[in-house]
Amino acid sequence: MQISVKDLSYVYSEKSKSLAVHALDKVNLTIEEGSFLGIIGHTGSGKSTFIQHLNGLIKLEKDKGSIKIGEFDLAEKNCDFRLLRSKLGMVFQYPEYQLFAETVFEDVAFGIKNFMPETTPEQTEEMVKNALETVGLNYYAVKDRSPFELSGGQKRRVAIAGVIVTKPEVLVLDEPVAGLDPVGKKEFIALLKQLHNSFVKTIIIVSHDLNLVAENCDKVAVFSQGKVVATGTPKEIFSNEQKVSELGLKLPVTATLEKALNGVGVDLNSDLTEDGFVRAFTEFYKGGNG
Ligand SMILES: Nc1ncnc2c1ncn2[C@@H]1O[C@H](COP(=O)(O)OP(=O)(O)OP(=O)(O)O)[C@@H](O)[C@H]1O
Ligand SMILES: [Mg+2]
After folding, report:
1. d(CA 128, CA 111)
2. N or C: which end of the chain has fewer CB within 10 A?
3. Which of 27, 48, 206 to mutate to test the pocket of ligand 1 (most atoms within 8 A of CB)?
């Protein structure tokens, strides 16, 4: 499903003159099927408001733009949001806080009951088992446990299982690695990549971690003051140091190193991933430049 957003505007507390906040101001963004998009931007720039429009959590208001996701036109009265939400999964910051059921099984099965009520109990069990195993948990070991007695990392996995259980084509995540330790973060990214290689076609990730974005995303959209002010590959976005700092953002480590090396006459021109950087650096030395 391609996602096409045109001239999307949103005002919180629109009716109040003193409280009104113009969170989105004519946002235009097309997200191709298959992309791994990073959404970045300073705090309050509208990132969360934007993504909450994508599954109708914030309602697209009349004359405030258009949102089309595959066959779904979110401006249409008869838009099937239940079906849309089974195909576009949304993971919020600290998703483990959203766990609520008495057992892990019930928690993960909730999305099926909610979005796909015609599913049989046998199919439900199979789907829950698949989802839990996909996120690296042993179905039989966790299914009857209370989600509240699991570790933080396990809770987050259960929460993700509850989102991917309907096999969404698009997965949208708001600050998904916040609060994880470096190992937890690495494992989480590996999980996202594994999902991207299977049924999740498109991943959209909102993050303040520009290293993570440079490392994993193939496209970046930069928000500032309710607008999309730049889109491009991580290389295109992070090569423009002046613009990045004007937007209140800090370069990823690879871009900072490249810039420093550039200052002493070394032009690596890598793709700004860690592997790419190391490869370019090694090539430079092998080439006898060292
Ligand atoms: N529920 C709300 N009511 C009123 N104003 C809000 C609400 N949620 C967000 N805002 C305002 O809308 C603007 C955009 O907020 P949003 O949460 O989309 O930004 P963000 O880019 O996700 O920021 P952060 O990086 O801090 O998460 C901000 O000015 C914010 O204060
Ligand atoms: Mg936010």
Report:
1. 10
2. C
3. 48
Ligand 1 lined by 16 (C-beta under 6 Å): no
| 44 close to ligand 1 (CB < 6 Angstrom) | yes
- CB-CB contact of 56 with 74 (8 Å): yes
* Domains within the chain, CATH numbers bracketed: 3-251 (3.40.50.300), 252-290 (no CATH)
Nearest CA, atom 3, ligand 1: 12
How far, in Å, CA of 148 to CA of 100, rounded? Answer: 8
Distance 175 CA to ligand 2 centre (A): 8
Please state the pTM of the whole predicted model: 0.93
Whether ligand 1 lies within 6 angstroms of the CB of 134 is answered as no
Residue 227, classified by CB atoms within 10 Å of its CB into exposed (0-12), middle (13-18) or buried (19+), is: middle
Nearest in space to 196 (alpha carbons), one of 176, 222, 170:
170
Q: Which atom of ligand 1 is nearest to the CA of 41?
A: 21
Q: Say yes or no: CB of residue 41 within 6 Å of ligand 1.
A: yes
Instruction: Single out the residue of 194, 175, 182 nearest to residue 38, CA to CA.
Output: 175
Whether 47 is in the pocket of ligand 1, judged by its Cβ within 6 Å, is: yes
